[in-house]
Amino acid sequence: VSRVVSRCHPAVGEGRGRRAGVRLSTGSSLSSEEEVKRFIVENTEVVRGPHNTPNISLRLFTPSCRFWLARPELWPFSDPYWAIHWPGGQALTRYLLEAPAVARDSRVLDLGSGCGAAAIAAKLGGASYVLANDIDPVAAIAIQLNCELNGLEPVPVETRDLIGSEAESWDLILLGDMFYEEQLASSLHSWLRECVRARGTQVLIGDPGRAQLQNHGIRKQLRRLAAYELPPSLREENYGLTASTVWLYQPET
């Protein structure tokens, strides 16, 4: 993980926070969406078939990018979590690519979308409607670029925090690597339970074994659907976690 984001890596200490909104550094000249797009294109690398997700291309941070080892204060936005394909999101994306019927003809919400990989996989799987949700407006632009990389019309992106909101009639909610704080895990558990009970929504969670999920009460209400080994480089970056799992959330009635 690049130095820009490693200080807030979700396996360490305080976690990443709730993907804070864009913060331009003092004196930044980036003011328009087109300028932000150009900045993303110039400072990420197109990775084809990253890690566990074949057939998808994403703009990500790699060691070839100039900000990989840059001082964090030189990065002009909030921490670029959207530039890392987190292992929970990888598992979820791969599962959707391998089992496209899961999302076919469904209304899908990709919560905490980040780079947008799971939203893209759902769209490729034939979802009737996909909404990506990430409160970082730079992530919203990155998701648009990643959709275009994969020959898709950009999916709509909602930058308002939807956790705890009046849920629409979602057939499927996707969460990749979202359980990185205990308080957030509790908020998600409460809201997702309501979505399932009230509307019959299916909830899929991708997670590499983070303690905030494994030690939370929600863990008892998850059924494993698939697990994927992490390559050696990702094991090192994620502090020894060896696999990422896709869970079906089944709250008690």
Features of the shown structure:
253 residues; alpha/beta; seven-stranded mixed β-sheet; Electron transfer flavoprotein beta subunit lysine methyltransferase; transferase; protein-lysine N-methyltransferase activity; Ribosomal_L11_MeTrfase_PrmA; Methyltransf_16
What does this structure look like?
With 253 residues, the protein is an alpha/beta fold. The chain has a domain at 87-249: 3-Layer(aba) Sandwich (Rossmann fold), CATH 3.40.50. Helix content is 30%, strand content 18%. It is built from 8 helices and 9 strands. The protein has helices at residues 3-6, 33-43, 87-98, 117-124, 137-149, 182-199, 211-214, 232-237, and strands at residues 45-48, 57-60, 107-111, 129-133, 157-158, 172-176, 202-207, 222-229, 243-249. Strands 5-4-3-6-7-9-8 form a 7-stranded mixed β-sheet. A hairpin with an 8-residue loop joins β1 (45-48) and β2. α2 (33-43) packs across α5 (137-149). The longest helix is centred in the last third of the chain and has 18 residues, at 182-199. It is globular. Mean pLDDT is 85; it is low at 7-28. Keywords: Methyltransferase, S-adenosyl-L-methionine, Transferase. This is Electron transfer flavoprotein beta subunit lysine methyltransferase.
